[in-house]
Structure formats: C-alpha cells, structure tokens
C-alpha cells in the first residue's frame, strides 16, 4: 500500500465514527459466521465423554458419577470439534458474544438422569 493511500486513510479516519465500541455497555451486531461459544442441551447428553476426549484444549470435563458436564470457557478456542463429535448432537455453537466475566470460572451443568425420570 502506498504511503499516499495510507495517509489518506489516516486522515479520513479523523472524521469517521470509531470502529470500536464500549463493550459490554455497547455491542455490535455479531458478524456472520461468529462461532460464539459452546452450549449444551443437557437433556440430550448421555455423558459419553466423547467431547472431552475430542477437545484439543482440555476445556471439557465430564463426570459420569456426579452427572455433570463442565466447560472452561477460558480454555475453549471455539474450534467446534466437540460439537461435530457429539453423538447426540446436543452441543452447538451459539453465535453470540461470550458473556463478560471479571474472573476465570468453569461452567458446570447438571445432566438430568432421563432413565431414572422415566422409571418414576
Ligand atoms: S459428546 Fe455429547 S453426549 Fe457425549 S458427553 Fe459430550 S455433550 Fe454429552
Ligand atoms: S469448541 Fe473446541 S476448544 Fe472449545 S470445547 Fe469444543 S473442542 Fe474444546
């Protein structure tokens, strides 16, 4: 890019609205194709652990005995491997911005025991 064009862009940006916003007070419309973050429809989860084995970042922990499915959003890189591998198709990428956090956390979801509920 020539220095003349670059200078023109710099000068032009002085009179344009900034591209940045005061997130999270302001948000922009998510761009098409935003991967967002992983959500789990736990009613369909069978705690098979395939997502945990598939995740290259060790972001998912499945505890079969405790019936919990957990994700560390600070490890997840939104690659989508877990969603593609899930045999029950209960994982998906929510195309929305990840909620704001002031400290690291792990999101733990309780997985209902569908068999026990059906037997009652
Ligand atoms: S792969 Fe799907 S069904 Fe298996 S534990 Fe993960 S979320 Fe649940
Ligand atoms: S999207 Fe990728 S990094 Fe994130 S939890 Fe799934 S497999 Fe792991």
Protein traits:
120 residues; alpha+beta; Alpha-Beta Plaits; three-stranded antiparallel β-sheet; two-stranded antiparallel sheet; 5 strands; 22% helix; binds iron/sulfur cluster
Which band does the percent of strand residues land in?
15-25%
Strand order of the largest sheet: 2-3-5
Number of domains: 1
- Helix fraction by DSSP (H/I, runs of at least 4): 10-25%
Mean pLDDT: 91
Let me know the number of strands: 5
CATH class identity? Alpha Beta
List of distinct ligands in this structure = iron/sulfur cluster
Task: Give the topology string: H per helix, E per strand.
Answer: HEHEEHEEH
How would you sum up this structure, described in words?
It is built from four helices and five strands, in the order H-E-H-E-E-H-E-E-H. The chain has 120 residues and is α+β, with helices and mostly antiparallel strands. It has a single domain, classed as Alpha-Beta Plaits. The structure holds iron/sulfur cluster (2 copies). The site of one iron/sulfur cluster has 14 residues, from helix 3.
Brief characterization of the structure:
This protein is α+β, with helices and mostly antiparallel strands and 120 residues long.
């Amino acid at each position: 890019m020539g220095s003349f064009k670059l200078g023109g862009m710099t000068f032009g940006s002085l009179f344009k609205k900034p591209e940045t916003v005061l997130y999270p007070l302001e948000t922009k419309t998510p761009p098409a194709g935003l991967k967002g973050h992983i959500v789990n429809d736990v009613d369909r989860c069978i705690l098979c652990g395939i997502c945990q084995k598939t995740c290259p970042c060790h972001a998912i922990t499945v505890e079969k005995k405790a019936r919990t499915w957990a994700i560390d959003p600070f490890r997840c890189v939104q690659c989508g491997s877990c969603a593609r591998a899930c045999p029950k198709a209960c994982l998906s990428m929510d195309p929305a911005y990840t909620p704001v956090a002031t400290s690291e956390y792990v999101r733990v979801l309780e997985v209902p025991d569908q068999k026990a509920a059906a037997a009652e």
